[in-house]
Amino acid sequence: MTSGFLPYGRHVVDQDDIDAVVGVLKGEWLTTGPTVEAFETALVETLGAREAVACSNGSTALHLACAALGLGPGDTVIVPAVTFLATANAARYCGAEVVFADVDPDTALMTAETLDEALHRARRQGMRPRTVSTVHLCGQVGDLAAQSRLARAEGLTIIEDGCHALGTVQHVDGGDAPVGACRFGDLTTLSFHPVKTIATGEGGAIMANDPDLAGAMRRLRNHGMVRDAAGWTEAGQAFGADGQPNPWYYEMPEPGWNFRLNDIQCALGISQLAKLKPFVERRRQLIRRYDERLSALAPAVRPMRRHGDQDAGWHLSVALIDFAALRRDRGAVMRALRAQGVGTQVHYLPVSRQPYYRRRYGATVLPGADRWYDRCLSLPLFPAMAEDDVDRVVDLLAAELGLKP
Fold first, then answer.
1. Same domain assignment for residues 303 and 354
2. Is 311 helix (H, G, I), strand (E, B) or coil?
3. Residue 198: which domain range?
4. What is the CA 269 to chain-centroid distance, rounded?
5. What are the phi and psi torsion angles at 364 (to 5°)?
6. Residues 352-401 pLDDT 10s
7. Are residues 287 and 247 part of one domain?
């Protein structure tokens, strides 16, 4: 059993991870060096897309994806209501509007039906849908093939927010498609925050199969700078009298940002990525134990519903709890569990209910998202946990809910 406090998520760092970071610290490059490209290569080899663009975190990955797709004022992005703030905010950073789609109340995943409803709602409001940002929540992928068919028929681009789903593998057309291969989406974003499957401290990446999109994101993550003379347009200041490129020169055709990931973080990322399979398998084992234990608490408590045709790389273990029927206050339950060494979290308050978006778009009725939010509670899940830890969590949860496990 893990000693001490059990948070809802935590990184696992071993000596080989430390050695990899120390190796970079003793080297010549701390940032914009060869380890960044090595990490991107490792992501491509692991996930199967043609391109990987490392960046500073999962939120900047979403921002870069929206920018590379050319989103701006007059455009609209469809976003599922149950997600982290960054999925919607990335569209707003680029000046695009957001329309929130409802989700399945037992998985919190957008469906083809809720996507279709959101598209019709956007058009009724005079908006122009350009992109769908679909979210692989908790590690599960929704009916992505159906969503893709609908989006492509409407001429929309697709961003897969895969920040919860590194290690998830879909079974598609008789084969396997890892999240990040961009089997259905134009771009897939990833996060390497310490509570995610692998950690780089902070960190993110965008996977792509279009080299032009990848090139645009590499430029935008580094202030929009172009250092390759082949891409320069101002010959008078770019080249010397001898026709050679001025060694100090660069151009900025459009503004970008400092969204770089450094070599120190990428060294940790390479080491962690090598352990992706055992990390994912351990999470699956713990989820199976949660399923077994939580089933004894039904119908008042049960795990989130499983979506078929995939092997999920679980980021979160979510219990759906009928707090109203049990006459229990969720906040009080969370505080009581914390006092006994168990951390929990709520993923998420629907983003459509955040003050900024309510002021901008008014109240949006999304019953599936509200139903999920009313019941969800994320329980501890990370590879260093023992199965006895799962038992401890479930036993304490049952006691606080007044149930017998």
1. yes
2. strand
3. 15-273
4. 16
5. -120, 125
6. 999 999 999 999 999 999 999 999 999 999 999 999 999 999 999 999 99
7. no
